[in-house]
Amino acid sequence: MKTDIQLQRDVMDELARDTNIHANDIGVEVRDGIVTLSGDVGSFLEKCEAERVASRVAGARAIVVSLEVKPTNHDRQTDADIARAALAILKWHAGLPPEGMHVKVENSWVTLEGTAPMYTQRLLAENAVRALRGVKGVINDIKVEGSPHRREIVGHIAAALSRQAQREASHLEISLLGNGEVLLTGTVHSLAEKEAIRGAAMSTHGVSAVVDRLQVE
């Protein structure tokens, strides 16, 4: 088992290897396997990337993100500029429904509203907008339509978990809460495995939300 000092060094090394992250501006603190990232970053996309990179480091039990987005003068945009850019990218982005999505922008925070037929399209919309210049954060209030049968959705998730997480689905508890919401419980070996399991559940047709209660051993 890694010590906190070893884990801190590994996280810092991973951040430094990513060319999309200004690692020198990010502080890394580790206590009892819990990694805290602090400092300023130039974009919301960089903030998300730093969290993703830290999460995949073996031994990390949880990630606390205390990063503040401070766009450079070149990247600063008005709320109106951000709204126009968000509407344009949602309109032309492949895989997204052409209608049914709405955008609100306040203090550089983007709120997405409306409906989508699949959870993956909900995520596509968020990922498309988070990369826009000047965005400090994204609130995703897009609702997923549809109400799948329990046997179908549990079967799809179990198959996806076996493929993506390389772990027998029987080691996990999968419950359908209603309206397409899925509850995941059980234990996993790492945050990376936890993310793989969540990703498998989210990519299953008919899933509207995932309640993640997986614990890292």
For the biggest β-sheet, the strand order reads 1-2-3
Radius of gyration: 19 Å
Kindly identify the CATH topology of the largest domain: Histidine-containing Protein, Chain: A
Overall pLDDT metric: 84
Structural class: alpha/beta
- Tally the structural domains: 3
H/E series, N to C? HEEHEHEEHEHEEHE
Walk me through this protein's architecture.
The chain is of the alpha/beta class and 217 residues long. The protein folds into three domains: 4-69, Histidine-containing Protein, Chain: A (2-Layer Sandwich), CATH 3.30.1340.30; 79-144, Histidine-containing Protein, Chain: A (2-Layer Sandwich); 150-216, 2-Layer Sandwich (Histidine-containing Protein, Chain: A), CATH 3.30.1340. It is built from six helices and nine strands. The strands form three sheets. A three-stranded mixed sheet has the order 1-2-3. Strands 4-5-6 form a three-stranded mixed sheet, with helices on one face. It has a three-stranded mixed sheet with strand order 7-8-9, covered by helices on one side. Helix 5 (150-164) runs antiparallel to helix 6 (191-202).
